[in-house]
Design brief:
Helix content: 25-40%
Protein name: PHP domain-containing protein
Number of helices: 2
Structural class: alpha/beta
Strand content: 15-25%
Largest sheet: 3 strands, parallel
Number of domains: 1
Number of strands: 3
Length: 79
């Protein structure tokens, strides 16, 4: 089983490439070409339900899509 648990699908941070904005067709094609069976969408500080549902539905016959999010933490430096 091939698993890829880290897939960004939206440009949400400064410095992210425009290519991070993945459309449904590209997502489905890339997932199918790579033979991945589980993919997790993990955009930074952002979860877009409708995009998740659309991407999940586009690959439902050959891949599971799991939810994820990466959180940026701001804090004071240790002593």
């Amino acid at each position: 089983m091939i698993i890829e648990l880290h897939c960004h699908t939206k440009k949400v941070k400064t410095g992210d490439a425009k290519t991070r904005n993945v459309d449904v067709k590209k997502f489905s094609t890339k997932v199918q070409e790579s033979n991945v069976e589980i993919v997790r969408i993990t955009n930074h500080n952002n979860f877009h339900y409708y995009q998740y549902k659309e991407l999940k539905d586009s690959v439902k016959d050959f891949c599971m899509v799991w939810l994820g999010i990466e959180l940026d933490i701001d804090g004071k430096k240790n002593r």
